[in-house]
Amino acid sequence: MADLVSYGNAQRDIDQALIALKKGAQLLKYGRKGKPKFCPFRLSNDETSLIWISSSGERSLKLASVSKIIPGQRTAVFQRYLRPEKDYLSFSLIYNNGKRSLDLICKDKVEAEVWIAGLKALISSGQGGRSKIDGWSDGGLYLDDGRDLTSNSASDSSVSATRDISSPEVFVSFNPNTSPKSLRPENSFHSERSHVASEGTNMDVKGSGSYAFRVSVSSAPSTSSHGSAPDDYDALGDVYIWGEVICDNAVKVVADKNANYLSMRADVLLPRPLEYNVVLDVHHVACGVKHAALVTRQGEVFTWGEESGGRLGHGVGKDVIQPRLVESLAVTSVDFVACGEFHTCAVTMAGELYTWGDGTHNAGLLGHGTDVSHWIPKRISGPLEGLQVASVTCGPWHTALITSTGQLFTFGDGTFGVLGHGDRESVPYPKEVESLSGLRTIAVACGVWHTAAIVEVIVSQSSASVSSGKLFTWGDGDKNRLGHGDKEPRLKPTCVPALIDYNFHKVACGHSLTVGLTTSGHVFTMGSTVYGQLGNPCADGKIPSLVEDKLSGECVEEIACGAYHVAVLTSRNEVYTWGKGANGRLGHGDVEDRKTPTLVEGLKDRHVKFIACGSNYSAAICLHKWVSGAEQSQCSACRQAFGFTRKRHNCYNCGLVHCHSCSSKKALGAALAPNPGKPYRVCDSCFAKLNKVSEAGNNRRNSVPRLSGENKDRLDKAEIRLSKSATPNMDLIKQLDSKAAKQGKKNRNILGGSLCSSTFFVSVERCCFV
């Protein structure tokens, strides 16, 4: 295995590995008695112990007591049930002065790399930086005299891997050699170097910069033991998404005003985990129209979605299926991000504002004073010099920001007076809203052609004066979105008179909607009644209305708006949505509109900490769910308790515990199968995934390739779009199939004969936002 520390940004790679270990995984544990068993393992939050759940309850191993890590199946415990084909996935932790070993097998090579790299870093740091992983980075396997841990024979395996981590798909080629090889006698200090050692591994990693060497792990929910629920500070953040999302194995025909075209999008009707190429501890997420961004707790920015004008910030004109690091911001620590339709903004911990994206709309959208597009983040200086930016929000055509002193600045397209400067002029750089000068703005939100802000004003109450947050709106007054009881535009911030008695602290804007949240947890909406987006069937939209129904008695803590839908988060960590239901953006398992707040059942058992809405999709940050010992007594799928008539069964692909009803099928190619050539029991979810992989393999063997995977990526977008004459959909598909067939034939001519029979390729299916 290539040592992660020797590539790219070493500390970042180790941080990624440790996050993966904290999220945990199902590993196959060998014992001194009985057969190997699946157990959920995880690293403790303080990084001092390895914790797992066995049949006897929760167990832990102090890493300070571990003397070394031995790769492969070298110990006497492993020799009881030797699996040579899993040698490169196996490792042992030697502890208790060399008298005991913890022997584990991982699901795949990537998982093995992550666990060994993370544990290596922790154990090495405990010894002043001296590496104690043997057989991987030093001269060979070191054995102390009298140590009875290694049998007289062990299996070696040579591993050859080629990965292209910079692309959404990962191709892995293995060439296992399972012939046993004798070790030197026990009284010898050194054994022969294992073929799994670093110099015996041929790994070619393609990509650019440190991104090419990041740990590649799926973020699908893993189960790991935890004796008691972690507090919010220590808990890891996972992202869940729903609505219209990008999926690399789905193609559908989409109609717009000008033409029909093929879109790699799928409607996700229920919240599901966002999948990453790397394991991330998410602190903040922002959603645009066709792209999104997130910030990790380590201050890194990741973006993904459809590239247009540089809004992803990667410096290349390529769509990104899964979150990818914005490398130019890796040298600074980012606090949070905001996404518009054509651009993206980021605020650093130091209060600096960076923007990037399409600046060619003659609106000064990026705030740099020009109409130049920026494909990588660029810091805004000029009017903001000497000021610290506290927050930023983006609309499609304008941006608003608040400084640490409460000053409000806006820039971009000034149509309808949306910038609040008293005119309709565009401003290509941040300009303070003078009518609010001297007042403290605490929150701001941008719609398409209107803006809303919460401004602190001094209110006299009896003999005392207190500050209270008042809702101000300005811009286009059509559809009553400003809440002033008319449809007239406002060129300057104007307080909403109907809400003057309430104390607000948060605000959100949709296309024709404004939502305000009071400090007492009440939600008010104003604007168009279309799709039931006001959340109050009795409201006519002319004046602000209180959203009650199922929110009555609830204390709302967060609000978010899409184009025509709303999401709120309550103090009980429950998410309610309403409004337009197309594409499944409400998360209720259908595409129906909701006129009143409706609980998102799919997140009911999740600890939700933050919500965000894009134009036609939604996202939530949930604290990573640890699996306690009690939950091991339930089926991972149907949640029915195990008992005399409902027995436990492990899935040989994901390793989770299921009942017979949820794991009655068998499939070839399960990741943890003892014999890859035989079918083994898997859960229903893994059965479907393995079937897709099998079908994809069969399709690749067909004489005429269909429009899928690699061929789709090679088709030019200009050829995908239809002309305004609107060619019928079937004709379009035939044209694309013909193009794909020609491209596939060309690829076979290039690649023909270059692949030996001992090499196989695994295409990892991934689906994620946008």
UniProtKB/TrEMBL annotation:
RCC repeats lie at residues 299-350, 351-405, 406-457, 469-520, 521-572, 573-624. Residues 183-196 have a biased composition (Basic and acidic residues). Residues 176-201 are annotated as: Disordered. Signal peptide: none annotated. The keyword Repeat applies. One of its GO terms (molecular function) is zinc ion binding. This is FYVE-type domain-containing protein. It comes from Gossypium mustelinum (Cotton). The lineage of its organism: Eukaryota, Viridiplantae, Streptophyta, Embryophyta, Tracheophyta.
